[in-house]
Amino acid sequence: LYYECITESLRSSDSVVRATAVSSIAADAGIHQLVTYFVQYVATTVKSNLRNVDTLTTALAVARAVRTNPHLFVEPYMHQLIPSLLTCVVSRQLGEPGSSAHWALRDNAAEQVSEICKQFGHVYHTLQPRVARTLLRAFLDPTKPLSTHYGAITGLSALGTSVIRVLLLPNMRTYMALLDVEMEKQEEEARMCQNALVRALKKLAEHYEDEVGLSHMQKHKLAEVVGTTLAGVVYEDPQAGKIMGAVAAAVAETKLSNQS
Predict the structure, then answer these.
(1) Residue 165 and residue 183: Cα distance in Å, rounded?
(2) What is the largest CA-CA distance in the chain?
(3) Among 116, 196, 209, 214, which is most exposed with the fewest C-beta within 10 angstroms?
(4) 45-72, pLDDT tens digit by residue?
């Protein structure tokens, strides 16, 4: 009865009713036997509603509520949740054509995938590598739409600086050659992908203390790694010196680990 009442509320057109239902899932101490049903609810809802961003957003809220309820033992169900979340990260189309609401949805799903990897990676050692491989394949596939590329970039970046250094950074220059062409055809999508790459570089630089001086030589060095267009965008950023230093350090670290 509780499950039917909650799922009915989740389908309500009233956002307050939906939020109350999600809050109940996040806090109720007596619903452990229903975890598998809520995980299945997320899977079914995502699969059947790829064109409805509001419904997908509610499904993601349910996923987060189940994961963060301190009274529930959710570890055995995470492998069932990951595919639904990844669908919301890299699916070709989410929402109606022409709508821009899907970008935030992809960000939300990518953040949740990252949280699951951090929370349960010590138990399931292959979890993050498998997720990273899935995202990398989507990122490197030139036949995929830019919406999928955006989700893959955001998802890889959310997995942390080591993933950015090892998987994203070495492929940025090649990817930007593709994006430069697409920028003339579909500017909004291409700009979103470019901004996602800049955010990844800024994340790489978060814990980097030193800065390099801005010079044409440094800009040229950066362009060799991330491509001329992205290097130009970074060069104009207030954090340019820090980003350039972090990229140089990451390239040097990768070379060192490849030699050893």
Answers:
(1) 25
(2) 68
(3) 209
(4) 999 999 999 999 999 999 999 999 999 9
